[in-house]
Amino acid sequence: MRVHLLVPAVALLAVSSGFPMSGESAGVVTYTCTTTSTGQTQEIRVNVELTVPPTAKVDEQMTIGWRGSYVGGGELIAPVPRLKLYVYAGISKIDRLTSATGVATLPAIAAGVPLPLPESVVELKTTPKQPGSGSVHPASFNFGTSPSARAIECEVKDRGTGSDYPLTVEGTAPVDAETERPDDARTDEPVDEVKTPVGGADTGGGGEAGPDGRIVVLAGLVVLAGVGMGVRVGSRR
């Protein structure tokens, strides 16, 4: 009796979590695709299935599998020949981890022919830098001859349901090392600084002499004044 009750409970938990169960196909994603040379747009629906590892580790490269297929017969037309597919997956709720990227080489087709999606799994790569738990979801993809030379850009319009996959990154967050001076380089005695006023070096302005320095300067002026008076008295005689 307990076994019969346990199976429905597990199934209900998986459905209520919002994440696909292992082996379950992802939901259908709606994309808005734009041909960059003409600005013409087309809306397509793609069934995207992501293969996400159950866990990943900090500072270790991880791989997310991507497989897509057109839904409803809506296919894109190649504006130019010899295109590649550049695919992205979005990652949420994990610090310093926002996406994974991958590329697939398509069959050599001529312009004006429907663009096929790869039958094999496209590997998307990324490297986590912080531990945490989040989710992976389908993101944009582009057709082009290079990542910057895009012939068609496809942005997500509606991810639908069932397209988020859980991801856990294990490990310890890296700690920034603090650089400290060696003990023998430290001193407990304050170091006096002589500050030069603005223009001091050019205008002859002095630094901050401090109270003791000012007394010495004053005494010197008194001595010079006395010498001057003596010279004047001697000259009168």
TrEMBL record:
Keywords: Membrane, Signal, Transmembrane, Transmembrane helix. Residues 178-195 have a biased composition (Basic and acidic residues). Residues 201-210 have a biased composition (Gly residues). The chain crosses the membrane at residues 215-234. Residues 1-22 form the signal peptide. Residues 159-210 are annotated as: Disordered. This is Peptidase.
